[in-house]
Every structure is written in C-alpha cells, then in structure tokens.
Write a structure and sequence with these properties.
Helix content: 55-70%
Strand order of the largest sheet: 6-9-10-3-11-12
Strand content: 5-15%
Radius of gyration: 35 Å
Distance between the termini: 54 Å
Shape: elongated
Number of strands: 12
Structural class: alpha/beta
Oligomer: single chain
Largest sheet: 6 strands, mixed
Number of helices: 20
Length: 586
C-alpha cells in the first residue's frame, strides 16, 4: 500500500520515468549509436548462418559438389569470426558506457543528498537513503549495459526472422506463426504482473536495509536490555517478507518460461510435420526445412528474451521511480540569487521577533528577541524542550524561521550564502561524530588548506596533543567508525581541534561537557577557555556550574526568553534561573 501510494503521488507530479532515464544516455549517444549498428551486424550474421547451412545441405544432397560445400563452410567460418568480433566489441562498449552512466547517476544522487535540508534527514531513515544510492542505482546498470540494446536486437531479430521466413515460404511461415497470438497475450500478462512484483521487491529491500542500518547502530542498546530474541523475530519477519516477494518474482519467471517453451515446441512439431510432408511431395527442399527448423528455435527465443528483458526493465523502472523521488526532493534551505558577502565576520548575532516550528504551527520558539555582541559569551539554559538547541540550529540556518529575522553583523542570514555562514560558525556537539580514517583526517575533514602543521598546532592548543602523541601512530593512528576506540573525552578534544583548525568567528557549543568525567572535564574546560578566546561564543548547558562566567545568560521557558542577565544578576532576580540553580545544588 505504501509503495503504491508513493508511486501514485510520484506519477501525479512527474512525467515519463523512461524519458528521464534516457537523458543520462545523451552524453554517450555516439557509443550507443555504434552499439546499435553492431547489433544490426550481429543480427544479420545470426540470420545468415542457418541459410548457409541450408544451402550446404541442398548442395550436398542435390549435386554432391563437395567443393561448393567447402566454399559455403569457409563463408560460414568468416561469418562466425565477424559475429564474434562484433559481439566482443559491443559487450566492451556497453559495459563501459553502462558503468559510466551509473557512476554519473550515483554521483548526482549523493551530491543532491548533500544539498537537502536537515529536516529531510529528520524524517527519512538512513537505510532508505543508502538503498537509493547503492541498490537502486546498481539496478539500473543492467538496463544501460544490456537491456536497451538487447531489446533493440531482439526486436530486429524477430522482424528479420519473420521477413526471411515469409520470403522463403509464405505458407510454411503461417504455420510457424500459429502460436504467436498466445505468446503476445502471455507477454502482456507477464509484463503487468512482473511490474507489480518488482516494485514490491524494491520496497522490501529498502525496508530490510533500513531496519539493519538502525539496529546495527543500536546494537549496544539491544544487548544492554537483552532484546536479541525480540529483534531477531522482527528481522525474521522482514526477511520473510523479502523472501516471499522474491519467491513471487521467481514464480512469475518459472511459469512464463515453460509456457513459452511449450508453445515453441508445438510450433516446431507443426513445422516438422507440415514441412516433412512438403519435402516428401517435393514442394520444398531439405535445406529449406532445416532453415525453418532453425528459425523456429531462433524465433521464439528472442520473444522469450524480449519478455524477460521487459521484466528486467520493469525492475529498473521501479528502482528509477524511487531514485527520482529523492532527486525531486527540493532543499528547504536555498541561497539567495545574489547572496551578500561579509568581508570579515565579527560575530554580532541578533534574533528579532523570531517564530519557529518544525511542523505547522507547533511553535518551538515564540517571538524570541535577543542580541549577542561580537566577542561575547552567551549561554542558554532551561528545561528540556525549551528551544535551546533549536536556537543553535537556526544560527547556522539548518532550518528556516517562519517569522522574524536573524542577523549576523546586521545582515539577514537568509541573504548570506550558506557556505560563508556555516564556514564562520564552529559547532561543538554533545555527541561527537568521528569518521573512519585516522586522527589527522578527522581534524582536517578533507580540507587541503589545513596543513599538517596547522593540525598539530590546533591539537596542541586544545590539549588534544597529549593523548594523540601517546598513540602508536600519533596523527596517523587509525580510528574506527564513530571513534569507538577513543574515550568520550578524547573524541571531544578531537572535535575542539577540528573546530579550531577551521578558525571560526562564532563558536556554538551544545552540552559540550555533558558526557565527560570530572578529571577529563578539567582538561576540557581549559581547552574550551582557549577555544572561546576572541570569539563570539554561544553555549547550551544543563550544568549551570559550566556557564557561571558567561557574559550573558538567557533563560528559556516554553519557547520564550523569560530572563536575561549575568549569573549573579539572575540569582538576585529570584526567578526561574535561581530555582534551577538551587535544584542542582540540592
């Protein structure tokens, strides 16, 4: 049901999927054209071979002239060699072209995913995105590398066989075509059923990949709560659904192939009976009967292949439908046509009557206004869900506000390019993400402008060099996915070094010391102090002891700024902040 809904919605707003797929062939049209030319040559060779053998039989039976038979055999050998060369050349061209097209599509999808807003990733499972970029794109490879040309080849072959048979013997050809209406009917039915089964298979593959992605990432939690058996049962159910979908797909082929084969045998028996009688009466030669027997096998084979290739095409189309649903996803955050450029970001941040909601009018922030001057240290405190982290996300324009303005140095952030805006902001998160690679690459993040020397300087400045230089390979030390071999404190120090290496004008910290032990926190706090020097700093913290020395503390409550002041001022005020402080002291 979900899949049909997705497809119906997609069809209602988009044109032909096949037309869009063909657009990717455009840069390689000359190679594809050459492949089609080779197909004509290959088809001609295949049609000519039975005729040569039929002539040889007639020559041997009729005149007994062995020399003429040898000449025909030599011609047959030349045809075989020509067919081999054309086939080899065509296979090489098609595979190269197909892989090039798939490479381009995969690059386009991945690039487009990078442009999408965080809201898309909030509501879309990672496993589904991975399936689109890997499995679904790879499913198109067979279409570009084989199916399109083979569809053309088999269509030409069927037409060529029918034309040659009618030319040689019209009456015998009609007997050969008796089963054709039944084959056409079966092919249409097969195409209809296979499209539905392919679409279900693609949906089931997406579901199982999504499940695996989520649960492998959360394996520690599953083991902590001893839910292995329950999760195994969940996976078994999804695996069974995929098995059943694949089984239905195989059953369609298992029924279609034998039926076509039976019809081809009926036609062959008919030709042998009618043709044998004609040979005995002298109406046709043995060579002509041989040609028809060979052509009957060759005639039904491309029809069978054509139907199966149409089925594979349906699979590719089902995958393409899902790929295009991602490519048609519009980024919510777009740059202005002519973005303004700040010569040097000083870091003065102003929220002017800002209203924000993730969905509809479920307001997370309500008429929020404040100013953080350049170089100031500001902290946001409040209960969970008060809107603190949302403010941090809005400063980097990962989401757009519904009302009001957010400015940096007096310029609305919607008028700046996201590259300049986010390049001026250094983010330190509570959960630090470490990529597979080494220490150095996780600080540099593929930025070639950050030299090895700068990497080391940044690490030393934020106290990360101490643990890095104790590793076996120091900055070249390999780290696993998510930095599992590093402690929470080491990962946090790496994130500080990463942020410092990019030298941002604005520093944003979301619970940066929440998961750190007391001993490590002293090192972290020293590193933080260095990191904040000379920068506008915005902090979110639940532990009020970490933000007591902030220049400005803003107390959030139900999406509104209720109190503003220094630590002492807010304690003297006796409001929400004092209650939070006393609660933590208790």
């Amino acid at each position: 049901m979900e899949d049909n809904k997705e497809w119906n919605e997609y069809q209602s707003r988009k044109g032909s999927v096949l037309k869009r797929l063909m657009a990717y062939v455009k840069p390689y049209w000359h190679w594809m054209g050459f492949s089609f030319l080779l197909v004509l040559c290959i088809t001609g060779f295949e049609l000519y071979r039975p005729i040569l053998v039929g002539r040889a039989i007639d020559e041997f039976v009729g005149s007994g002239d062995f020399n003429r038979v040898k000449k025909i055999a030599l011609t047959y050998l030349v045809v075989l060699i020509g067919s081999f060369i054309c086939n080899a050349l065509q296979t090489w061209i098609l595979q190269l072209t197909g892989q090039s097209i798939i490479y381009n599509i995969r690059q386009e999808v991945f690039e487009h995913v990078h442009k999408l807003s965080l809201r898309f990733f909030d509501i879309t499972p990672v496993g589904r995105i991975v399936t689109r970029i890997t499995n679904d794109v790879e499913a198109l490879n067979e279409m570009y590398a084989n199916i399109l040309v083979k569809l053309f080849k088999n269509s030409i072959k069927i037409i060529g066989l029918a034309a040659v048979m009618l030319t040689i013997d019209f009456k015998l050809s009609l007997y050969a075509f008796l089963m054709l209406p039944f084959i056409i009917g079966l092919t249409v039915l097969f195409k209809f059923i296979s499209r539905k089964t392919y679409r279900v298979v693609r949906t089931r593959i997406t579901a199982i990949n999504t499940y695996l992605s989520e649960h492998i990432s959360g394996m520690k939690l599953i083991q902590i709560f001893a839910r292995e058996k329950e999760k195994y049962e969940e996976f078994r159910q999804k695996n069974t659904e995929l098995f059943k979908a694949n089984f239905k797909e195989m059953m369609v082929f298992a029924i279609f192939r034998p039926l076509i084969y039976i019809l081809s045998i009926i036609s062959l028996v008919t030709i042998i009976g009618v043709g044998g009688d004609a040979v005995l009466k002298g109406a046709i030669s043995i060579g002509t009967l041989y040609i028809f027997i060979q052509y009957i096998g060759s005639f039904f084979e491309p029809i069978q292949e054509l139907a199966e290739q149409l089925g594979t095409l349906q699979s590719a189309m089902a995958s393409a439908e899902k790929i295009f649903t991602i490519l048609d996803e519009e980024p919510l955050i777009v740059n202005a046509d002519k973005p303004k450029n700040l010569p040097g970001v000083k870091g003065c941040i102003k929220f002017d009557h800002v209203w924000f909601a993730y969905e509809g009018e479920n307001w997370i922030l309500k008429d929020v206004s404040f100013v953080i001057e350049s170089g100031q240290r500001a902290a946001f405190v409040g209960a969970t869900g008060a809107g603190k982290s949302s403010i941090l996300n809005l400063i980097g324009r990962y989401y757009d506000i519904q009302r009001g303005r957010i400015t940096i140095d007096g310029v609305d952030i919607r008028e700046l390019s996201t590259d300049q805006l986010r390049g001026a902001i250094g983010q330190v998160q509570q959960e630090v993400f470490i990529f597979t690679g080494d220490i150095k690459s996780n600080i540099r993040l593929k930025n070639d402008e950050i030299t090895d020397e700068k990497v080391k300087q940044a690490a030393a400045y934020v106290n990360a060099a101490g643990f890095i230089e104790n590793l076996n390979h120091t900055y070249e030390e390999a780290v696993t996915e998510r930095g599992a071999t590093l402690s929470a404190g080491q990962r946090q120090l790496l994130s500080f070094a990463r942020t410092l290496a990019y030298d941002p004008a604005i520093l944003v910290m979301d619970e940066a010391t929440a998961n750190i032990d007391t001993e490590t926190e002293q090192i972290i706090q020293d590193a933080l102090e260095k990191l904040m020097t000379g920068r506008t700093t915005i902090m979110v913290a639940h532990r009020l002891s970490t933000i007591q020395h902030a220049d400005k503390i803003l107390v959030m409550h139900k999406g509104e700024v209720r109190e503003t002041g220094t630590h002492q001022e807010l304690l003297n005020f006796g409001g929400i902040y004092k209650k939070l402080y006393e609660l933590q002291l208790q």
